[in-house]
């Protein structure tokens, strides 16, 4: 009798969760027909040349994270959540990317960054090099370097930039400019003697020397730019923030000295310094904060040298080309990155760098990235700007438990375990630090604040740090040639498609005819065949 009452109560509550309009079959039919009409409009392919390229990268933003972030966004707007739309959801073309490294089923961020930036799959832990390079072995690097889409854009005369909420020498951004047998060689202070003797360069040095005219670089990790034991400008009494360089070089000074005469280069390490700049007179900008999430969160549109010499315009994380640029022929390439599930603290040592975010923080990071995507969507034109949103890899993050419609995304499942008779949160991890045993049993989450920002969701396997996941990640595309990103692809295909759209890199045979208007009612498959002929 008790079970029957509970069943009836559950059915009653479930019925009350359904919005009235959704009870009408016509609501769903109208919605489907509108979606169908929008899909039919996509037969008119956008084959314009992409003057501007933007690659949004959510570090660790797997499909389950995207779904949970969508629900969170809706709930933050006082909705139930499931019916909400992320800005990336509105992009008309979606693909899946296979993220494995050449020697790893479940990838790391260095090998994946080499794939989606350089167009070549690589071994885990290596940056900007082919799979012929073995991790940690400097002597395998020579002749195996591969260039990135940032370099291709630079060679085509475009302005380029990188903005990240982790350090600028982290695996994701550094694959755009560096070539390294080990992603952890941030400065020469982290390199073994044999690598130094073999002539390999640390990543921070390559940031300054390899591509000297990157217009905008914003992130963290400034201690790798300064001589060993030099006190930090912001935290002079904290040893962990002191410089790490053994060669005694000041790479910030070297960055300044490498700029052409007559050009203004500004280095900032705090948001106050950035906002104090006369941006109309800045040509090159390097910002390294110990708190990049705070210093470079929403700062205006990165303009200026990304459009015309001598003008920086307004600043914002991430890069948004302002309308007043007029979308010049030379255009730009930009990589904004935001981390999900992992927190890259630019001021910590390499061993302390990657620590799991609380589940609440991780999803809020994804929502913030999506907010930036929305700003970019509003300020750019699909006629000349190709925007791509993707992730480097997934995480072992999931949510389930037969939760009812509108259940708080950080809330409990509506049932207890039928094994240990304890409640559990909808969000769980396959492994990580959330594994807790109390008095010989699984921790009772009803006794803790599972909605706290620092709460780490329960995991099945105890690990100090949660791992990456191995499943495919989504690729969302909007703008010229966005239809080339469809179906299931190897991850290294992404920069090739973007380069083709922008007529940069090696595959430019189609470019003389690429500026023609879109062909009406051409089926995507036939259009693709035509473009590749």
From TrEMBL:
Residue positions binding Mg(2+): 59, 170, 172
Top-level taxonomic group: Eukaryota
CDD domains: ALP (cd16012)
GO biological process, one term: biomineral tissue development
Cofactor names: Zn(2+); Mg(2+); Ca(2+)
InterPro entries per record: Alkaline_phosphatase, Alkaline_phosphatase_AS, Alkaline_phosphatase_core_sf
Enzyme class: hydrolase
E.C. numbers: 3.1.3.1
Subunit structure as annotated in this protein's UniProt entry: Homodimer.
Name under which the protein is recorded: Alkaline phosphatase
Species: Origma solitaria
Encoding gene (name): Alpl
């Amino acid at each position: 009798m008790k079970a029957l009452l509970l069943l009836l109560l559950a059915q009653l509550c479930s019925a009350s969760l359904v919005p009235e309009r959704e009870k009408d079959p016509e609501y769903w039919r109208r919605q489907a027909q509108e979606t169908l009409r929008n899909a039919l409009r996509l037969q008119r392919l956008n084959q314009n040349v992409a003057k501007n390229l933007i690659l949004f990268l959510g570090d660790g933003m797997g499909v389950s994270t995207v779904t949970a972030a969508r629900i969170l966004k809706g709930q933050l707007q006082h909705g139930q959540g499931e019916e909400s739309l992320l800005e990336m959801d509105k992009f008309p073309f979606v693909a899946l990317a296979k993220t494995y490294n050449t020697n790893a089923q479940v990838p790391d961020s260095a090998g994946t960054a080499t794939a989606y930036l350089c167009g070549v799959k690589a071994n885990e832990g290596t940056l900007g090099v082919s799979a012929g390079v073995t991790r940690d072995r400097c002597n395998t690097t020579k002749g195996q370097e591969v260039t990135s889409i940032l370099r291709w854009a630079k060679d085509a005369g475009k302005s380029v930039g990188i903005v990240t909420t982790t350090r600028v020498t982290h695996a994701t951004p550094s694959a755009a400019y560096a070539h390294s047998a080990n992603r952890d060689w941030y400065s020469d202070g982290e390199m073994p003697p044999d690598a130094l003797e073999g002539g390999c360069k640390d990543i921070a040095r390559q940031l300054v020397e390899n591509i000297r005219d990157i217009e905008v670089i914003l992130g963290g990790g400034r201690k790798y730019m300064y001589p060993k034991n030099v006190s930090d400008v912001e935290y002079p009494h904290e040893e962990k923030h002191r410089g790490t360089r053994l060669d005694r070089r000041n790479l910030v000074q070297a960055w300044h000295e490498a700029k052409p005469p007559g050009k203004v280069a500004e280095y900032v390490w705090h948001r106050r310094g950035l906002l104090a700049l006369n941006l109309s007179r800045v040509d090159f900008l390097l910002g390294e904060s110990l708190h990049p999430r705070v210093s470079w969160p929403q700062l205006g549109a990165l303009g200026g040298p990304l459009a015309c010499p001598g003008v920086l315009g307004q600043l914002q994380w991430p890069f948004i080309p302002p309308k007043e640029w007029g979308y010049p022929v030379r255009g730009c390439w930009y990589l904004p990155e935001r981390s999900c599930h992992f927190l890259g603290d630019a001021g910590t040592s390499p061993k302390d760098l990657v620590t799991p975010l609380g589940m609440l923080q991780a999803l809020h990071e994804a929502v913030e990235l999506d907010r930036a995507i929305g700003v970019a969507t509003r300020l750019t034109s699909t006629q000349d700007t190709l925007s791509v949103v993707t992730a480097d890899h997934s995480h072992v993050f999931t949510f389930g438990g037969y939760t009812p419609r509108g259940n708080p995304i950080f809330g409990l499942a509506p049932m207890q375990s039928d094994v240990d008779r304890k409640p559990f949160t909808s969000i769980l991890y396959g492994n990580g630090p959330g594994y807790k045993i109390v008095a010989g049993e699984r921790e009772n989450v009803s006794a803790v604040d599972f909605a706290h920002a620092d709460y780490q969701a329960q995991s099945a396997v105890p690990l100090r740090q949660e791992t990456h996941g191995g499943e495919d990640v989504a690729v969302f595309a909007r703008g010229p040639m966005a239809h080339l990103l469809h179906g299931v692809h190897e991850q290294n295909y992404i920069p090739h498609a973007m380069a083709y759209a922008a007529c940069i890199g090696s595959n430019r045979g189609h470019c003389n005819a690429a500026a023609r208007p879109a062909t009406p009612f051409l089926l995507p498959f036939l259009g693709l065949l035509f473009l590749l002929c």
